[in-house]
Amino acid sequence: MLMRFTIEQRHLTDQTGRPVRDNPAAVSFHTCEAENVDDAVRLFVSKHRGEVIGNVLKFPGFHAVATVRDVDGVYTLQVSPSSSQNIVPIKE
Predict the structure, then answer these.
(1) What are the phi and psi torsion angles at 43 (to 5°)?
(2) Closest among 73, 77, 75, 69 to 53, alpha carbons compared
(3) How many CB atoms lie within 10 A of CB 90?
(4) Closest Cα partner for 61 from 81, 75, 41, 90?
(5) What percent of the chain has pLDDT over 90?
């Protein structure tokens, strides 16, 4: 059974490795449907052609945090379950 997840993507560094500060575009929100939080992280990382750095930290209630690297820099993902009723699509 698929669950809907909200993923907060927060950039930590840019392509040159410099910290990202005071940039509203450094935080974005995405949605995905997956069977569990591991699959949600895997699908997001695969779609963005990134790689997980270290381990995915899982918390009770289908929550997770991961650090990811791709061509745009390094960012954290905070994954949490979201309601599938009255969905307003989030623009990517």
Answers:
(1) -65, -45
(2) 69
(3) 12
(4) 81
(5) 67
Domain boundaries, the chain: 3-81
Looking at residue 25, its pLDDT comes to 82
CB 80 within 8 A of CB 62: yes
- Which pTM value belongs to this model? 0.82
Residue of 73, 71, 92 whose CA lies nearest to 12? 73
> Can you give the pLDDT at residue 72?
87
Where residue 66 falls among pLDDT bands split at 50, 70, 90?
A: very high
Residues in the chain: 92
From CA 8, how far away is CA 80, in angstroms rounded? 9
